[in-house]
Specification:
Aminopeptidase, 10 strands, 7 helices, alpha+beta
Length: 253
């Protein structure tokens, strides 16, 4: 089990990864338990069912490669031919700034429990892969791991700021990043690669469906996971309700 602790406004919120069942934690205003394997009713937790894709790393590397979409493999080879270089655990500050800007553009910070991590948090908990060409940072992916599982945690790139030719390079770089992370996890003896969640099939937003297709192009299996939330603090509950109400009004205006 991996526990990440963050201060959000005046509150202490803990996020839990890689657990089989929800559990209470001390010393926080709220706990979020993500990608949990089992469904448990009650105990004061709100439960939400979600889908994700999982790649079995007990397979050999050649089988994992063969199970990937043909176009996905082609783009990884293009990234290599274009001399896009992948590095691990470097350029934390640049990646965090890129991720923060992307979250603002996409509106990801619409929940009081969400906070983009800073470089210190990323160094402490994450494994960062970055891709650059001629020294220019194109994209980066951060992963969480616990020895048995690895989770695609954060992904950021300059995709929204570039012309079509550079966007192609970034797309190839993103696929190469995940491929290198898969190989890293396999070599380390990790048995499961979790792609970080899928949007429902009923989701109308085409960008979200495109993200699903991107993740599934790596050949993982679709599985069910559960996300739990429990609020211990009355002031946090009130602040969360107020924040979500303001966001809802803003979305309708």
């Amino acid at each position: 089990m991996l526990v990440l602790e963050r201060r959000i406004l005046l509150f202490n919120v803990k996020r839990v990864y890689f657990c089989d069942y929800p559990c209470d934690l001390d010393g926080c205003d709220a706990v979020h338990i993500l990608h949990c394997r089992n469904q448990v009713e009650g105990q004061g937790f709100n439960c939400e069912r979600r889908l994700t894709a999982v790649t079995d790393l007990d397979q050999d590397v050649d089988t994992i490669w063969a199970n990937m979409d043909k176009n996905c493999r082609r783009q990884i080879r293009k990234a290599v031919s274009e001399e896009i270089k992948v590095r691990m655990n470097e350029r934390y500050g640049e990646f965090c700034q890129m991720n923060k800007e992307l979250a603002q553009i996409k509106g990801f910070a619409s929940n009081l429990g969400f906070s983009t991590p800073d470089a210190e948090t990323l160094r402490r908990y994450g494994t960062l892969f970055t891709a650059a060409r001629n020294g220019e940072l194109l994209a980066g992916n951060a992963y969480l791991e616990d020895g048995e599982h690895i989770l695609a945690w954060l992904s950021a790139s300059k995709r929204l700021e570039v012309d079509r030719s550079l966007a192609s390079l970034i797309g190839w770089a993103n696929r190469l990043l995940h491929w290198e992370a898969l190989r890293y996890a396999k070599d380390k003896g990790i048995t499961e690669f979790d792609w970080g969640g899928l949007w429902p099939e009923t989701e109308a937003d085409q960008d979200k469906q495109n993200l699903n297709r991107f993740k599934l192009s790596f050949g993982g299996d679709v599985v069910t996971r559960y996300c739990y939330e429990k609020v211990y603090s009355g002031p946090f509950r009130a602040a969360q309700w107020l924040y979500r109400s303001v966001q809802s009004v803003g979305a309708r205006s």
